[in-house]
Write a structure and sequence with these properties.
By secondary structure, the chain is an alpha/beta fold. Helix content is about 30%, strand content about 25%. The protein folds into two domains: about 110 residues, Rossmann fold (3-Layer(aba) Sandwich); about 40 residues, no CATH class.
Length: about 160
């Protein structure tokens, strides 16, 4: 089991625990870290000796929500670089119609919920009408805190944006 540090660590551990119970053997969960959290173009890596835990092993990559498939793809690539055999990618929800091809040609991509048919509104940065109204930003959950460190986040604060959390 391997999950990116951006949200899938608990999922990887939960799945590993329950599979260990079902299989009556230990199944290890590890997590992947971003090379640089501020730059999503850079790869993930298995630090803290986790590379040795996946070397020569079959690995299921876990994710919380598939939006673009980027985190899952970087996870798959990191596991393969470390010598792991990716047997699939599993997540809670697929909201971006992500395919196995988008996550590094994973042999299988599974989500508990396919949200492709559900209309969800998502805005990028300052095109968000809530940001335009200077609605308070939650920084205790999600990626609000790290967004504030970006040039756009700093500009939003200068305009009078405030935070919660």
């Amino acid at each position: 089991m391997a999950g990116p540090a951006e949200g899938a660590i608990p999922i990887a551990h939960f799945v590993a625990f329950h599979l260990s119970q079902i299989e009556t053997r230990d199944i290890v969960a590890v997590y992947l870290e971003p090379t640089d959290p501020a730059n999503k173009a850079l790869p993930f890596y298995l630090g803290r000796g986790f590379d040795q835990d996946v070397l020569g092993k079959k690995v299921l990559v876990t994710e919380d929500i598939f939006t673009s498939g980027g985190s899952a793809q970087r996870s798959v690539e990191a596991v393969r670089r470390a010598g792991g055999d990716v047997i699939g990618v599993a997540g809670i929800a697929n909201r971006g119609r992500v395919t196995p091809e988008q996550v590094g040609q994973a042999p299988r991509l599974t989500a508990l919920t396919d949200m492709a048919g559900i209309a969800m509104i998502a805005w990028r940065d300052l095109t968000c009408p809530l940001c335009d109204k200077l609605e308070p930003l939650r920084t205790d959950i999600g990626k609000g805190k790290s967004w504030l460190e970006t040039p756009l986040g700093k500009a939003w604060l200068l305009k009078g944006g405030t935070t919660l959390g």
